[in-house]
Amino acid sequence: MTTPALLPLSGRRIPPLNLGPPSFPHHRATLRLSEKFILLLILSAFITLCFGAFFFLPDSSKHKRFDLGLEDVLIPHVDAKGAKNSGVFLIHGPDEHRHREEEERLRNKIRADHEKALEEAKEKLRKSREEIRAEIQTEKNKVVQEMKTKEKKTLPPVPIPNLVGINGGDPEDNDIREKREKIKEMMKHAWDNYKTYGWGHNELRPIAKKGHSTNIFGSSQMGATIVDALDTLYIMGLHAEFLDGQRWIEDNLDFSVNSEVSVFEVNIRFIGGLLAAYYLSGEEIFKSKAVQLAEKLLPAFNTPTGIPWAMVNLKSGVGRNWGWASAGSSILAEFGTLHMEFVHLSYLTGDLVYYKKVMHIRKLLRKMDRPNGLYPNYLNPRTGRWGQYHTSVGGLGDSFYEYLLKAWLMSDKTDHEARRMYDDAIEAIEKLLLSKSRGGLVFIGEWKNGHLEKKMGHLACFAGGMFALGADGSRMDKAGHYLELGAEIARTCHESYDRTALKLGPESFKFDGAVEAVAVRQAEKYYILRPEVIETYWYLWRFTHDPRYRQWGWEAALAIEKYCRVSGGFSGIKDVYSSTPTHDDVQQSFFLAETLKYLYLLFSGDDLLPLDHWVFNTEAHPLPVLHLANTKLSGNPAVR
Ligand code: DMJ
To answer: Where does the secretion signal sit in this chain (predicted)?
Structure first.
């Protein structure tokens, strides 16, 4: 195994580190006898010096100083005579004899070690260059082998939670069954084209018919679409396709790459996708890949506050934040959307490191002052201070609130702290961000520098589903109120779709005078195959069985089919108000992970992935409720 060259930021190449023995010029393949003798002489002089130093320098082992880090402050240091806080430990009396014996034993050991080292050095000098090379090669092979074994290492078995409803959901109604079949066909079209034209790339360009990627996935081909799509394939019964994906992951998915990725995106799409695939299929490979990736993300948490960087280089572990984020901050929706996956990682590995990282974030946030009770979107990981006071339930904030609620649900409703934080947060949101337009549409605006901006993003439309999901268990039994609120948000978001030429919603829409639920700026008129509105329809359908949600979902499916489908897959649209659509030529991985999955579930029976057994991460990857989560995570390994 060669040590790769390191590339510093300046782009100057640092030569490979040579960890082997010094290389000799070619014209002197072997050392002459006189040179060997001089080398031996130097070596023995050095060893004699070491012995001298050992015997004649003052014996520091008598003075044991506790002067490192916190111990110095926390441990009261008392010597035998009672000198308090001296910082020095002195040994006297009967212990002295035992101590001298120990010293003698140590000296003898060091002497023996030195003699052994000398013998080994002599032995080395006797060997030819070829012999030395062969030895190094053997060592290298050993290391490579050890690494491979480590990769293949099976993780400790844990009781897998009761997996209810991982297939089925066949609708009784013929019409609904046909609709479900149509969604499955759309999934196959998206997958088959990705397989033909973009296999192994992160995403697909369905018009150019080639691979595509963005900076969130770094510079490597990590097959984001494969990982993101696996569980959708599984629940749709597309098993051959699932197997193709599994094989690609087994043979190609490698996280030891020099690539800087988004911690949040990689967590929700890759770790979430792999964990869901593991729970559904029981295939160990998915679990071990998820853990390998999680290990690579851990260096992102090495900040003065423990709030992770937004990006991390998978090879070097160096982290940093997005250049556009306010005052070098990390983003609330990013560092606040790790909890579900990290708790599952600790559950599956028995290693509490993941759990501790996310609980640390939670505790830190809980203790912080919140302006008007709202969580700003920006937090500086060096200072622990908020950046710009901008609060949003759409982009930059959204899934943080979602994960508070889902942490509670995933813990079988035992993580009360998470529920409390969720309740507090949505109360403040309702008070300051929620508003009703002149035409009677309820919307969630954004709080910027002390005032409400009357603009709602497509991303914020997920909140309709969140309010419905959190209704049960709400404070002062306001379940009815939150279910209604969810329904109002669903209606508003449906209006944002219905008021366009293509019946697909814009990225962001305004409520300004006569303008209601319509995008105003050209740059906000695009639809990139996002799932949030359909996600809300599905949750509302599950909780109310009101047929309007299936009807609205079907309208969206038809519009996607009509305007986004092209021969090479599905593409986003640049302007949903123009009746002649222009494509953006990107098939997002979340289209397969989320949009098509929520549509499929909307036309399935409730017995497929029932919500009292499964909690969907923010990328729609289902993770089982951990009924024993608290027992396991409070450090009782016996039950593992
Ligand atoms: C998805 O990757 C996730 O839902 C995320 O939380 C935010 N948005 C995209 C899809 O729009």
So the answer is: none
